[in-house]
Design a protein that fits this description.
With 91 residues, the chain is mainly alpha-helical. It contains three helices and no strands. The protein is elongated, with a radius of gyration of 18 Å.
């Protein structure tokens, strides 16, 4: 498996962090357009912020690991990749 490392700007991080904080350990992000279509099709309101019984269909559409400090699980993988890439560069 592989992952793309993304370092958002401070402005982007404020938005992303606010959304992630609402998700706790797992969440379902519903786009505003999809929410409107679901509302019309099923005549329901999306339960924003509510915890529902859900198993991600066996696997999530997008896997996301969030790094809040340098001691987190993903950091050594990032460091290894960068240091490995640097050793492959020609002087």
């Amino acid at each position: 498996m592989a992952a793309i490392v993304v370092v958002p700007t401070k402005e982007e991080w404020e938005v992303v962090n606010a959304v992630l904080a609402r998700c706790a350990e797992g969440g379902i992000l519903v786009s505003p357009d999809a929410a409107e279509k679901i509302k019309k099709k099923f005549k329901i309101e999306i339960p924003d912020g509510e915890c529902i019984d859900y198993d991600f269909g066996g696997s999530a559409d997008v896997l996301l690991d969030v790094v809040f400090d340098p001691d987190q699980f993903a950091v050594p993988f990032i460091v290894k990749h960068v240091k490995g890439s640097q050793s492959e560069e020609k002087p």
